[in-house]
Amino acid sequence: MGLGKKTIDDENYCGKKVLVRCDFNVPMKDGVITNENRINAALPTIQKLVNDGAKVILCSHLGKPKNGPEAKFSLAPVAAALSAKLGKTVVFADDDNVVGENAKAAVAAMNNGDVVLLQNTRFRKEETKNMPEFSEELASLADAYVDDAFGSCHRAHCSTAGVTNYVKDTAVGYLMEKEINAVNKVLNDIQRPFVAIMGGSKVSSKIEIIENLLTKVDTLILGGGMTYTFMKAKGGKIGKSIVENDFLDLANNLVKEAEEKGVKLLLAEDSKAGDDFSNDCNTQICPSDNIPEGWEGMDIGPKTMEKFADAIRNAKTILWNGPAGVFEFDNFTAGSRAIADAIVEATANGAYSLIGGGDSVACINKFGMADKVSYVSTGGGALLEAIEGKTLPGIAAITGDK
């Protein structure tokens, strides 16, 4: 993923109408934003454009409206939050068709340094189909386009890709720039040893990532629920642990592939098992390949924690995607915390650490360690596709790396 010369620092936007695609897909409950991280992440780009004297037109999706406009997915609360954070009124153009009379009037009335927020782009069904009509309407509002929504850049939608067919002055914002640089750091500018930790419940959802990483890493740590597919594949007993029976051969092939490539593959040798999927169940530590009937592996055990932590502490480049266990339950957070502690220690000793993917980010935030690692990505699916080596449409549209 290249950046070329297309960042917002390469230009002064004074007097220009700039359409900025942000990621304001924030969690909401009863119309109230419950986590403002994504809004905060967008502020540096917005502030730079305001300081330049640009006319800043923001757009984003929120949730997945099924049949056109739905009040619960309105971006009105985001406009209020932005107004408070920027210390100036952010005009909300409340048009169900996004580029309607309110939007056009709000943009026409803008002075340099003003900010307007459009309604949820997914209120238009054309958005997710990347249809030219809506792309052209969005483009008609602006002289320039800035993409700062890494979390959406793996989708070829009107507001992330199609609009660039009609606005030729394009760039990436500060958040997007940081995300691209972080991915490049762990995939193309590797300081060794490079250790990747992959967690999560399913091997099937991580196949392409694992295969791409096997060409790059020195050590690959696999934890979480996918452990038990590997254990069963080699003939182990896994009780009622989560397993993908259709992927047993694949698991064995990945073990062989790692061996052939000289990659050290670490799996959980012991597990903390529970007799019920709940925080308060009975627990026991047992070998990951010998879990009793009626019990399921829900976290890594103490021997594995030590083994994983040793590998991580010696790393110079670290990628963490996916927790080691059911970290949502406090009694099963120890494995993920051991990984996080080791990453923090390695980072303090000069390693570059990238945390990405919804659950790992939730983990590092739960432990209050987000400021002790090198970078926490805002992109779930986008980061994973980048790690798989795929071209991301929203970035390709700006950089020309198609």
List keywords for this structure.
about 400 residues, six-stranded parallel β-sheet, 14 helices, 19 strands, elongated
Question: What is this entry, summarized?
Answer:
By secondary structure, this protein is α/β, with parallel strands linked by helices.
Please give a structural write-up.
Helix content is 35%, strand content 18%. It has 402 residues and is of the alpha/beta class. The strands form five sheets. The chain has a six-stranded parallel beta sheet with strand order 5-6-4-1-7-8, with helices on both faces. Helix 7 links the parallel strand 9 (194-198) and strand 10. The chain is elongated, with a radius of gyration of 23 Å. The mean pLDDT is 94.
Instruction: For the largest sheet, list the strands in their spatial order.
Output: 5-6-4-1-7-8
Q: Outline the biggest β-sheet.
A: 6 strands, parallel
Q: Give the overall pLDDT as a whole number.
A: 94
Helix content: 25-40%
Tally of alpha and pi helices:
14
- Secondary-structure-based class equals alpha/beta
Tell me, what's the shape?
A: elongated
Q: What fraction strand?
A: 15-25%
The stretches of 5 or more residues where confidence is low (pLDDT under 50) are: none
Backbone CA Rg: 23 Å
Question: How many individual β-strands?
Answer: 19
From the N-terminal CA to the C-terminal CA, the straight-line distance is: 10 Å
How would the blueprint of this fold be written?
Elements: E1 17-21, E2 28-29, E3 32-33, H1 37-52, E4 55-59, H2 76-86, E5 90-93, H3 101-108, E6 115-118, H4 126-129, H5 132-140, E7 144-147, E8 170-172, H6 174-187, E9 194-198, H7 207-213, E10 219-222, H8 227-233, E11 237-238, H9 248-261, E12 264-267, E13 270-274, E14 283-287, E15 290-291, E16 296-300, H10 302-313, E17 317-321, H11 334-348, E18 352-355, H12 358-366, E19 375-376, H13 381-387, H14 393-399
Parallel strand pairs: 1-4, 1-7, 4-6, 5-6, 7-8, 9-10, 9-17, 10-12, 11-15, 17-18, 18-19
Antiparallel strand pairs: 2-3, 13-14, 13-16
